[in-house]
Each structure stands twice: as structure tokens, then as C-alpha cells.
Amino acid sequence: MTKIFGMICTVALFGALTVSCTGNKDDEGFNVEYEQYQLKNGLNVILHQDKSDPIVAMATIVHVGSNREKPGRTGFAHFFEHMSFNDSENVPKGANRKMIPELGGTRNGGTWSDGTIYYEVVPKDAFDKLLWIDSDRLGYMINTVDVGTLEREKQVVKNEKRQRVDNRAYGHTSHVIKKNLYPKDHPYNWTVIGDLDDLQSATLEDVREFYDTYYVPSNATLVIAGDIDIEETKKKVELWFGEIAAGPEVEPIEPWAVELEESKKLFHVDNFAKLPEIRLTFPTVEQYHEDAYALDALGTLLSSGKNAALYKTIVEKEKLAPGVSSYHRAEEIAGTFTIRVRANAGVKLDDVYAAINTSLDKFATEGFTDEQLAKIKAQTETSFYYAIESILDKALQLGIYNEYAGSPDFIKQDIKNIKAVSRQDVMRVFKKYIHNKPAIITSFVPKTDEALVLAGSTKANVVEEEIKRNAEQKFVENEVLSFEKTPTKHDRSEPPLTDLPALSIPNVWESASTNGMRVLGIEQTELPVVNFSITVSGGQALDTKDKLGTAFLMAQLMNEGTANKTPQQLEEAIGLLGASIRVSAGKESVSIRGNTLAKNFEATLALVNEILLQPRWDPSEFERLKARRLTSIKQAQGNPNAIASQAFMKQLYGADHLAGSPTGGTQSTVSDISLEDLKRYYTANMTPKNAAFHVVGDVKQAEVEKALLQLSAWDGDQVTIPEQPSIKNVEKPKLYFIDLPNAKQSVIYIGKTVVSANDKYFYPIEFANMRLGGGISARLAQTLRIEKGYTYGAYSYVPATGYQSPFIASSQVRSNVTLESLEVFKDLIGNYRATFTEEDLGVARNMTIKSNSRRFETLNSLLSMLETISRFDKPKNYIEQEQNFVINAKLIDLHNAIETFLDEQEMIYLVVGDAASQLDRMNGLGYGEPILLDSDGNLIGSDDSSSDSVLGAGQ
Fold first, then answer.
1. What 3-state DSSP class applies to 814?
2. Which of 42, 53, 540, 814 is 20 to 30 A distant from 599 in Cα terms?
3. Could you give the CA distance from residue 417 to residue 290 in angstroms, rounded to a whole number?
């Protein structure tokens, strides 16, 4: 018997090397029970039983990230992750991406500098199919890769890079930092997604070499968590994974910290940025290093909260920016500490840099308070519980700790290390790594504001892709591949489903507070935490038209102190409880949301009561928040998706409709709002008669009702919410176009209005949409991404609103296939009714019924269910009613829903893209000359075309 990181482990040798470990309780009573063992081929296996929901999660962590790549083949680990979701020897083409969603599950993968992870959650009846798919991916996929699949995935990954990097503000920052911080031969010299030229030059030989070297059992950890039988699962794991060839040993990669002799200042003129940004990046230490924990705490202490040194100088005193962030990122072989400031429009980065240095000098002499450190530790405890809330969360955490810290039981040591950080530790690492130390300093500025660049900066080497028509390599995928199957003793054909778990809806209790507020709750005792919300109907719907954004600003200001507490004191009081409380406003409501440790629920509600009934109305905080809002509106002008979203809604609904106006207001309406306007809104509209309280977690109904007595002084009459005008859809399609010069992708929005979420037809429309755009297995993604390689993703959805909800189909496609992508949308939507078959109905029915088994796992999902009940006045068993509709729906019902509500001829089309290369092609869609809009969604040449920006917080 041996002891590893606090685990009691028994070593046995019988066919396979088995190290069976059960996590034991630490001194504080924290425990996540699991068993760990190793197959003969070297695969590490961790099993965790949790029968609270009839679901199973699986995570496979392969210890290979971009740090294992070769110069000239960057981005390959991430590219290979994409390749791994295609077919394998025994799993047919498309099944990996399509089958799991159609079984009611979710699946995805991710790659970072140090590793690749694949994960799924399914109803327990699909567990065997998951074992089949995952084991085949790990051990039997390489023979099925052909040139067509290789080229298709190149297009998808390049589209992802354009979407995440090339077509967004500040997207090239990481590239610039890595190239200048790390030597050319350092594994962190390149970004995870890599360079486009490297991706394009990847060959089948490269793929095979990468797979043979790193995708071996001894370089991976498999975690299975959920409603499983441990002994039975061990037999299944041996059956499906035991025959995979062991492969070569993978040598561990050693820490490789770097040092800078002097600071390097670099700048880039950003095509999409609307605000100047400066980042200081300091080299630090690898993950789990003793200094990493203190550096993590330092990041929070410097920038998070009203008392933080960077915040007090840059935001509060100098008013140079709406916010500031600092954080530490420790990776497997090195780490970085970052200070980032996205300044107000027109602010010189020399001034920001000087303010950063002033802040750091002040921190060096004054440090921080014991209360600030205590607050961090209290909030860390709460965050820790939420990090293992779901079964998948636990699977991911156990697997990551095993691969990178040597044991899943390090989960307990990690939290101890976080809590053990002292004042001396923080100040020591501050002086050792940050204060007066050299850094990589980047200035990213708008293309019209190069004068704002930090003095002494040199131009960064950023290569912008040139978009050319027909530049992408053509590919044809073979439907039937000829390859020699790997011989196995076990039959690797598709296993059957087991029994489907029954739908079990949590018990919802209801009462009313003494002041007339509706109260809904669910008791859930798995974790010692509570989530809650108060929603007050109204929101921006009660703003006056000339002062849109009043509700938004009022909600923001309610977070900034109370009559008896300064903003700093309120923040500290919330933090010391390990809680979070946030007031916000949207189009149809004002919400107060929070979470807390169960033991602090009543004390947390006492603070909610103070926030709600005794706003501080601080004039200086109001001016700061107003300036921040105006800066946020300005910043959104550089976001192609935000431009498209708001312009689309404006054309669909008109500027006089609530949905056609931006959440949070415009430059002109926000500029005209006064503090008195906020007070008037509060007095007139914040009433319990329009409110509902929702609570889920480890708290009983009687405890909730007792705690809510604190809010009994809150009073007010019911407020009538104005009805929104009825919207008539177009009689024939219209195409709108917004020019975004040099855009590497085009953003496409298509849609029409349907019915409100409380209409009886709303759910049938949602259900009917599933096979069109409801996920990766639906028509839009399968055609535009999987078949064509035009995009990283394409979806359609119906947001739930109290007015006529929009049906929206959207994607971001590479610029040179904008017209071709529009034609695909037109064909798939226009012919959806004619092509929707009994098979589609069966798939959609299966997906819905099975996915309901995962619907009640997290506190947030339960809270969302309660909010839906109160917001749309639904019965407590509305999910059961929806499932009954799904079970009994006929094909004609779905055809009628599609024909009535998803008629393509009643839809508008909007494109935000590069006019110079794409506009002349738009006539090819067949809907006439495109109607040109400016970036605010106004007709070019109209009286409104010179108006201020209307970009808001989005939908």
C-alpha cells in the first residue's frame, strides 16, 4: 500500500497494472471520491460516481498542446483536435459530431498551449455509445484520414482563426506578445491557433506523425463521472480501451522560464479597434510553482475592486479608462503576468503608462489591507464549489490535476495553497517579478489614432491576410474510404442504447412575500451554496425614448454603495461573505442576481435589502458609469457581430420598437441622462408588485421566507408595462449591406419576427427549428461548415421575449464566399418544409427527450427554469408539457409551424463585410440591389445617416 498526494492506493498486478485510489477527506472535510487505475497499455483512468442526475460525463485529456509543435507547423495540436472529430475505423463519417447531439448529449473539445481535451455529457442510456466513439477516436482514427478531410478541416480552422483573431479588435495581441517574449525555439513562441501558412502546408504525413507520437494511451487520462456502476464501468473501459496499442513513451516537457533584459515596446494600428489599449506582460513562473499562487492573488489585488491600486489611480483619480485588469497565467513550462488597460477614446497611452507606474509605486509602499486578502479567500471558496458544480466540471478538474499535477487528489492541495497565500508572499512576488521589472509593452490603437501610441514603440510584425476570390484550395471528400482495419479481439461495432432514464422534474415550491412579490424556489443540497435572483418587470421598456439607457445606468449605479456604505465598503461586505450580488437591466426587466455560501444566505439578503431600498446615488460614481457606458458604445463600433446584430434588429423592428433600440442607449440618449432621471425611474418603477424572487440551492422554504422578511419595507404600486407595436414582416425578401473595409469575414444575419414566448406556438417554432440550425448536427452547420468549409459555425435560434420574438439565422463566413453562403441559407431555409421528414421529426424528438435528463443539473439551469415560469407565466410543469408536445407531435404539425412562421420569403438579409470585394456580387442572390446602411444601421443618404452610434449591449 502506498500514499500519493493524500490518496490511499492499492497496487495490484493481474493482466493490467491497476492502481486503485479513493480520494480521502482532508482536514477541512472536503472530499471528491473517485477510483483511479491504469490499463496495461498505460491509459490512466479515473472513475467518479454521482447518481444525482441520470447522466454520464466523459473527458479525455491528451497531454499535447501547441508546446509540442515544430516551428513551421504551428497550430497543429488545435488542427489535430478538429481532425479527431471526423470518422474513425469503426465509427462512420459524421457520427462523432452528429450522433452525440442527436442522442441528447453535448460534446466538444479544446486545445491550449499544454494539452488537448475532448469531453461529452450524455443521458446514461448512451454511455456505451460514448465509450465506443471515444475509444475509436483515441485508438483507431488515423487510417481514415484522407486528403479531402484534411483540406476541409484546414478551411474550418482558418475560418476559426479569422473569427477569433483576424476579424476582431486586438485579436493579434497574443501573437505580438509571444513572438517578442519567448525565443524562437521556445514552445510558447507561437499562439495555439498558429499561422495560416503553417496550417495550409500541413500534410497527411504530418497528421500521422503527430498521432503516432502523442495520441498514445500513456499520454492521456480518461475520466468518467456520473450515474455509473464502478465495477461494471471498469469492465467496459477494459473492453473498449484495453486493446489500443500502447505506443511510444512521451518524454515530459520541462519548465522553461524566460527573462527580459529590458522592456520591448511594440505597436499595431488595428483595423477594428475603436479605443487605444496598452498591455504590459511580465515573464513569471510555471503552474503549481509556489510563487504562482501569490501572483494569482496579486492580479486580483491590483485591479479588482474599488480599493485596488490600479483602479484607484487609472479609473477613479485620472479617469483615463472605464476599467483595468491584471491577472496571472501560469502554464506548464512558463507563466506571464498581464496588466491591461483599454483606455477612453482619444487618451494617449503615454498617460496610461505613467498612471500604471504610479499605481505600482504606490502599491510598493502602501500594499493592501488584511480585509482585501480575506475577501479574495472568501470569494475563492465560493468559486471553488461552483468550479465542481456539474458532473462534467468534476471530470475535467480531476483529469487536469492528474495530467499536470500528478494526481487528481491535488484538487485539495490546490485550494489549500490558494488559501495559504500570505501578505509577505504577495509583496515578495510583486517585487521579484513586477515592480520596476522589464516587460513586453504593446500599444494597439485605432487606425485613425496612431498618435496615441506609447512613445518609443516600434511597429509590430503583424501579417494581415489578403482575401482573394477563389483562393482556397478545392477539396472533395471521399464518401467511402478504402483502408485496412486494425484487427481487434473485441467486436467494435456500434453498441445499442440501454434503458432511457425517466424525466424527473425538481419540486418547485411557491409562496408570496408580505409586500406582494411572487416567490419561487427549489431546494437542492448537493453543494453548500445558494443562487437567487429578483426580477422587476420593465427595464428599458419604461425608458423615455429620448433617454434610452436610463434603466441600464440606474441598475449599474445601484451596485455602487448604499446610503450607509461607500462603494468600497459594500464591495468588501459582499466579498467577505464569499458572495456576489449584481444589479443589471435589460430590455424587459431589472434584475438583482447573486450567489453565496448557504451559511451566509440571510446575511447576503440583508445586503440585497440595503442595495434595493437605500441606493447611494453617488454623483461621482454616476459620472464615472456614464462615461464608461459611452466608452462601451464607442468600443462596440469595432465589433462586426455587434454592428450586424443591432442593425439587423433595427431593420426588423424599426427604431420605435423596444427591440429595434439598443440595450443601454445611444451616444446621444446616454449623454442627456442625469442623476435625477435615474432617481425618477427608481421611484416610479421599482416595485415588488412587478417583481418575482427565485432561489435554488441548499436552503429550505422556511429559511427563505424568514430571510425575505428583511425586504418587507420595500413597497409600491403595480406598474403597467407598455405594449410594443405589432410588427408586420416583409412581403418579399430584402438584402441590406454594411461596409466594413478590409474585413476578413462577412457577418450574415437573416430572419423575421414570429410570436412572443408566452404564445402557444412559441415552443412548436423552437422545436421545428432544431433540425435547421439548432446545433452542429443541424442543416446549417452541417452544410456551411462540414460540407463546404465556409465557416466555423452557423446556427438559427428564437430568443424568448415578451414581444414578437425574432427568428435569427446567422454565421460569420470567409469573405470570398459571402454570396455562396447566402445562397446556402436561402436554399436551406426556403426548402426547409419540403425537406423536413419523419426522420427529422424522430431525431428532433429523440434529442429533446434525452437532453431533458441534463436540464436540471446546475443551480443556474434550475434558476433559469424558475425565471421562465415567472417571466412568461408558465405552469410549474411547463417542461413536462413541452415534452408531451414533442412525444405527440405529428409531421403535419411541424410542417404547419415551418410554413406559417419560418417562411423565407418574409425574411430580411443583412451582410456586414468588405464592400470593395463583395458588394458587386450581391445581386447574384436574386433579391435586387442591396440596400446600403451605415454602421449604425441607418440608410445611407437618409436624414438619419449622420446620427450617432446606436450600438448597445446587444441582444
1. strand
2. 53
3. 8
Q: How far is it, in rounded angstroms, from Cα 233 to Cα 46?
A: 11
pLDDT digits (tens, 9 = 90+) for 547-591: 999 999 999 999 999 999 999 999 999 988 989 999 999 999 999
Compute the distance between CA of residue 705 and CA of residue 533 in angstroms, rounded to an integer: 14
Residue 344 falls inside a structural domain: yes
Do the domain assignments include residue 415?
yes
Give the span between the Cα atoms of 183 and 258, in whole angstroms: 8
C-alpha distances out from residue 804 to 725, 726, 952, Å? 9, 8, 20
Instruction: Find the CATH number of the domain harbouring 834.
Output: 3.30.830.10
**Same domain for 418 and 351:** yes
Q: What is the DSSP letter of 62?
A: E
- What is the spatial distance between Cα 233 and Cα 444, in angstroms, rounded to a whole number? 52
| 246 falls within a domain | no
Name 738's bridge partners: 912, 933
Q: Give the domain-ending residue among 419, 437, 459.
A: 459
Q: What tens digit of pLDDT does each residue of 620-637 get?
A: 999 999 999 999 898 888
What's the CA gap between 554 and 675, in Å, rounded?
Answer: 9
**Number of independent structural domains in the chain:** 4
pTM: 0.82
Query: Residue 656 sits in which domain range?
Result: 509-711
Distance from C-alpha of 836 to C-alpha of 149, rounded to nearest angstrom: 28
Q: H or E segment at 2? A: strand 2-4
Q: Specify the pLDDT at position 946.
A: 37
* Residue ranges with strand state E in 618-753: 691-697, 734-739, 745-753
Residues 529 and 444 placed together within one structural domain of the fold: no
Q: What are phi and psi of 716, to 5 degrees?
A: 150, 155
Cell of 544: 423615455
What integer pLDDT is reported at residue 87 of this predicted model? 78
CA dist 881 and 768 (Å) reads: 16
Q: Are residues 443 and 513 in the same domain?
A: no
Task: Please name which of 766, 767, 746 lies closest in space to residue 757, comparing C-alpha atoms.
Answer: 766
Question: Of how many residues is the chain composed?
Answer: 955
Q: Determine which helix (DSSP H) or strand (DSSP E) holds 795, and give its type and residue range.
A: strand 791-797
